[in-house]
Amino acid sequence: MKQKIFFLLLFLAGIIVGSFYLRDFLHYQHPSFGNSLSEKLWLFLALAVIIQLGAHFLRAYKSRLLINNIRQAGTTTLFKGLSVGFLFNTLLPFRIGELIRAVYIGDALYISKTAVFVSIIIERIIDGFILGLCFISAGLLFKDSSSSFTTLTHIGVGVLILSAVLSLLIYALHSENKIILKLVHTLSGMFNQSISNRLRFMAWSGIYGTKLMLSNKKALRKYFLLSLVMWVAYFASTVVVALAFFHGLDAAKAWYTTQSSYAGVSAPAGPGYIGTFHLIVTQLLDSVHLSSASVFASLIWLVMVVPISLIGLGVLIKQRIGGQQELPTEHMLINKLYREKNVSQELSHFLDAYFQGEKINQILTHAELEDKFKLIKSFRGGSNAHTMLVWQNQEMRVKKISLLQYSDKLEDQAEWLISHQDLPNLPKVVHQEKNDHYYYFDLAYHEEFFPLFDYIHSHSASDGFSVLKKVVSFLEKSVYKERPARNGQKNLENYIDQKVVSKVNDTAALSKQINDLAKYPNIIVNGQKYLNVLQVVEKIKSSKKIMQELSSYNETPIHGDLTVDNLIVSEEGDFLLLDPNNENQVSSKVVDFGKLYQSLHSGYEFLIQLQKCELKENLINFEDSKSHKYAEISRLFDASLKKQLAPKDYRGILFHEAVHYCRMLTYRVNINEETVPIFYATAVKLFNEFLAQYDR
């Protein structure tokens, strides 16, 4: 009902706007129709209307060749949309009717209006090249008549130029032009997240729809041939009227008259309105000395504009909006140009990365086009790998993918999971693939599992703690196989040099803020003074007791990235461990516990939500807060580990928690450089807290 009211209000607005163009028509003094219209001529007019409507129906039919790439469409629905578009092109300037046509068809078929509009642009590009060449050919027939030649050829050249410009736009969309992607990302980023996602999804739909519609070469060839047939029919309807009206009209003038008629509906200002149309056509025909040109212009307008516009008006009046079929979100995401629901929020991370020009996200778009898999939902990624839910081989899968040059870490992760496939609390690798561009592996999807973060905040603290106890118990029983480290001292030194010192220096090279901060011997974090990171690490390294404790660890296989983000659970408290990382010079279970502390103790999942911090010289202030549930579970978990671990191992948790924050610094620069000082300051704070344990 709302849609119907919108169209009817737009129609009334068009009547008001169109009245301004009527003034041009009223300036003319028209001879009596009675002297010009014979009974025979009325028959020819009726024949012309039939041919004209047949050409319109052919236009609707051939548009299926593009739209069917998105969703199967009936010719009748597309014809209705076409008639509504013609109606508003008659009433409103700048071919706004094409937008209205896209809205009508998009709503009728529940598909992307942006993609429909792209199909209309493609349609009009072909129309423009055909008409532009025909206009110029007609003008050349009368090159001795400067007025007719100049006017019609100028219109033809203008139409060709516009078609060429629109062709470049379609090419830019099809080729995923970096300037356009960057522009969309920048402009959409000015709005809130919800609006930004919708705008980016609209733009992506236009790009994806362009690729989809231009990918079927056979259909495009048929589309072009039908366009030629359609225009032969359009021209035939006009020739019928011209030959019947102008007695003794030769072939050259018949062709010129036909092209002058279509030049009248090519004007951007009120393209089908009688005032604009009549003025253009009459002037063109007067220039070749055709008598009664004004009457002919009115008659041909009745043939070309009125019938299809009246059909469009009837469509609006009789329009019935049926109940929208409720489809699962997954169905909508498999078919991303469907529009029964708004699914842009599910693709937020993908859209953000895509319009920033990340190559891997363009590969995902191409995979969609090739029907390799369908992206259902994108998740916040880490490092250079991307995690997403996809539809592939008639089932849901979790896919982890990276460009080939970054695939080593991902391949190691797959290898670790495959080597532990017999364990119940790890996801199963169901497929992997490597080619010249990317590597990915797929995991079995468990719909009943959801993020531990959500579980913690929807259940009691004791329930959350119970899950963590089961996680630790599982690792102790099935993964950890401890033995004294062979090269503990050397491993520890490499660990500190590579994961702390080198990471801080690399981040300083990337971020002026960190470069400036690192120069101070002390920094002040939320009002508390601490030794700066390199200074406190040097103090740790100079303590024989501390280094002895840290280096005398038991070596074992570990998960390596045991954050809350990498744990999913069911309502019953069952769990799965995701995203292992065996890239650790120090491979101790305390490293895993440090990852859990990264979440629960220092609130990593809350820190990453911050968008800014206050930084002035060596003073850093930011909102250092986490939920009460996190705090309570952290307290319970800390008390449990304090009982379970040897004192030196328990003390070492803070050290590894601090190292984890250093390890992520370069990655955080790429995410949001403005917030990197937050994670730097957290590492500083943790190293100082670790050192303070030895001063008590």
Estimated share of beta-strand residues:
5-15%
Treating each run of at least 4 consecutive H or I residues as one helix, how many helices?
29
What distance separates the N and C termini?
A: 74 Å
The overall pLDDT average reads 88
Rg from Cα: 35 Å
Read across the widest sheet, the strand sequence of neighbours is 1-2-3-5-4
- Envelope shape: elongated
Strand-pairing-aware structural class: alpha+beta
Largest sheet composition: 5 strands, antiparallel
The count of strands amounts to 14
Give your account of this protein's structure:
This protein is α+β, with helices and mostly antiparallel strands. It folds into 3 domains: 2-23 and 42-318, no CATH class; 338-445, Phosphorylase Kinase, domain 1; 452-695, Aminoglycoside 3'-phosphotransferase, Chain: A, domain 2, CATH 3.90.1200.10. The protein has 29 helices and 14 strands. The protein has a 5-stranded antiparallel beta sheet, with helices on both faces. A 4-stranded mixed beta sheet has the order 9-8-14-13. It is elongated and about 110 Å long. The protein starts with a helix and ends with a helix.
